[in-house]
Each structure stands twice: as C-alpha cells, then as structure tokens.
Specification:
Number of domains: 1
Shape: globular
Order of helices and strands: HEEEEHEHHEHEEH
Structural class: alpha/beta
CATH class: Alpha Beta
CATH topology: Rossmann fold
Helix content: 40-55%
Number of strands: 8
Length: 231
C-alpha cells in the first residue's frame, strides 16, 4: 500500500468512526428468556457483501460473501459448543422453501426497522414487537424438531480506494459525498410453533468487517449479546 492509499484509508476510517452507530433490541410481550430444554435451530445466514465504487454504486463481491459466510458458520459452531440450550443446524437438502423464508425474514426485518418506532411507526404496533413470519416456518420445525429459529440478515459494504478518494475530494471542495461502507445486520428469534418474532436486534454502523475472522467475531458479539444474556 503506497503513501496515498494509506492516507486515504486513514481518512476513511476517521470519517467512518465519526458516523453514529446504534443497536436496538426488543422482545415480544411475555417473552423474557428461552425456557429450560429449548431447542434452537440456526437458520443459514442471509449474507451479501458489496464494494462501493467511486460513483457510490454497490457492486456484489462473491468472494467477500463466501469468506463472510465461512467465518459466520465457524463462529456459530463455536457458540453452539458453549450454548446453554440445545442448538441444531438445518440440513442442507436444497429445499427452495428455505430460501423463500430467508427472503421473507429480510422483508419482515425491514418492516420492523421502519414501522416499529420513530417517524413511520404504525399506531397498531404501539411500540410493541408484534410481528410474525407466518405459519410457513413450520417446515423448519418439521425438519429439525426445534422450538425456535435464529435468523440472521446481513448486508455489508466497503468503500474502494477510488471511493475513498472521491470522499477526500468532496471534503476538500466542501461537497457532500457519503463515505459508503456500512453494516446493516438484523437478528431475530422466531417461535416455530406460531411464527412470532420473539426477539429482534438490529445493528447499523459504518465500522466492522466480516471479511476477516476476528472482526467478524466482534460483529457477531455485538449483535447476539442480548440473545445470549437472555437465556
């Protein structure tokens, strides 16, 4: 890495750290912790990583996505060994229903993020976590005999050197150029008997890196802490 690249990287990191990060966690009414003997299924994570081009366009990176998936799977297995409840993985049988449920979860997490609270909160929700994936999640119970499923939805992006240069030039000329590079992650614990979302935690920030194992561990720790301490 040459001097200019190092300088751009340092500036980009400084800008990223200046952006606010927030995480919110909520539970459905009546849910406080997993009951003794609960069996939790780990849903295959829905992960996509992108590079932000000079013009601010997110471009999918399959190699980064594969690396992130591998890190998450390995870290899942570490947590599985330490879990206070029985944790099972979903058999990889190519069932298209699983992909449909992952897409459904992504849509529901976006709806929760938009309508749970804030300017666009729905009056019918009154700030409560009252959302469901519907009866289709029953197929997961049939496949694993699990009581609950942990879903993970990740969209992560990273600024290219060209994008970082555009940020620097924009700053010099007082032009607003968003840095790019952002983690948007949501985790949900779902009751497989009813489809109800029992716990939801969303993480949005301009830091973190899922392409490397240890930074990926920090991201997972930040996201799943509430779920583990509620057991």
């Amino acid at each position: 890495m040459n001097g200019l690249s190092r300088a751009l990287c340092g500036l980009a990191i400084s800008l990223a750290l200046a952006l606010p990060a927030f995480a919110q966690g909520s539970r459905a009414d009546g849910f406080t912790r997993l009951p003794p003997g609960a069996k939790v299924m780990l849903m295959p994570p829905d992960v996509e990583l992108y590079a932000i081009s000079a013009g601010g366009i997110p471009e999918p990176r399959e190699d980064w996505t594969r690396a992130a998936l591998q890190h998450i799977k390995e870290l899942y297995r570490e947590r599985k060994a330490k879990a206070k409840v029985e944790v099972v993985e979903l058999p990889d049988d190519g069932d298209e229903t699983i992909e449909e449920l992952k897409r459904l979860h992504g849509a529901v997490t976006r709806a929760i993020a938009l309508h749970q609270s804030g300017q666009f909160a729905l009056p019918s929700k009154r700030g409560k976590l009252d959302w469901s994936l519907g009866p289709d999640v029953g197929v997961l119970r049939q496949k694993t005999a699990a009581d609950y499923a942990l879903f993970l939805h990740i969209r992560d992006s990273y600024a290219t050197p060209e994008r970082m240069l555009a940020v620097v030039v924009g700053a010099l000329f007082r032009t607003i150029v968003m840095p790019g590079g952002r983690q948007e992650i949501a985790a949900s614990l779902v009751d497989l008997k009813t489809g109800q979302v029992l716990w939801f935690h969303r993480l949005q920030r301009a830091t973190g890196d899922l392409r490397e194992r240890e930074p990926a561990r920090e991201t997972l720790d930040s996201l799943l802490y509430d779920a583990e301490t509620s057991q």
